[in-house]
Design brief:
Elements lengths: L3 H23 L10 E13 L17 E14 L20 E9 L2 E4 L25 E12 L8 E9 L10 E2 L3 E3 L6
Antiparallel strand pairs: 1-2, 2-5, 3-4, 3-6, 6-7, 6-8
Length: 193
């Protein structure tokens, strides 16, 4: 015999299923530009101590509390109208000529940010984005991208400098997004015990 609570529970489940179907059916597909758009999300800085850095190089065994490297992670939010972001791994060339994630480093001197010029002119932090939607599919996509970079002490990167990053991306059609600027961080800061 079916009881009243079972009938109410069944009716409630059916009602919730109908509301869910109506919600999904009424939701409109977002309309984004086919030119990618990005927004700044965040930047995080992690100091890597010598004792934690065995996989990054040769830590100094005599100074276990010194900063060996800094790991910076930049977060951006993206939107793209046709989803043509990222390349499959087999389409990434070894020279990096079709990179699609671009980073410029700006160093603060006397209160003014200037583009940091690396001694090796071929050096870059530009990279490849992952393939963000299937190649044969077209439609709007959005999400978050996080790019991590490790700056080791003694490398050609700024030391004890306040820096910020300017980021933009490019879709497979060659359209560049707007540029975003991160909050400043102090890179490879000398920390004394």
């Amino acid at each position: 015999m079916i009881t009243a609570p079972q009938i109410y529970r069944t009716l409630f489940i059916l009602l919730m299923a109908c509301v869910g179907v109506l919600y999904v059916g009424c939701r409109k597909t977002p309309k984004y530009s086919e030119v990618p758009n990005i927004q700044y999300k965040n930047i995080s800085l992690l100091h890597i101590l010598d004792q934690d850095a065995s996989d990054l190089g040769n830590p100094d065994p005599m100074n276990n509390d010194s900063v060996f490297a800094d790991s910076i992670t930049i977060g951006i939010h993206f939107q793209d109208g046709n989803g043509d972001l990222g390349f499959p791994e087999d389409q990434r060339d070894s020279l990096g000529t079709n990179r699609d994630y671009f980073i410029d480093v700006y160093s603060k001197t006397n209160g003014i940010y200037n583009l940091f010029v690396f001694p090796d002119s071929t050096f870059t932090y530009d990279a490849y984005m992952p393939l963000l939607s299937p190649i044969n599919t077209s439609g709007p996509i959005e999400g978050d991208l996080f790019r991590s970079i490790v700056f080791t002490i003694g490398s050609t990167t700024p030391h004890d400098d306040t820096i910020k990053f300017v980021v933009k991306i490019k879709d497979r059609a060659g359209n560049f997004s707007n540029s975003i600027e991160t909050d400043p961080v102090i890179l490879n800061q000398t920390i004394t015990p």
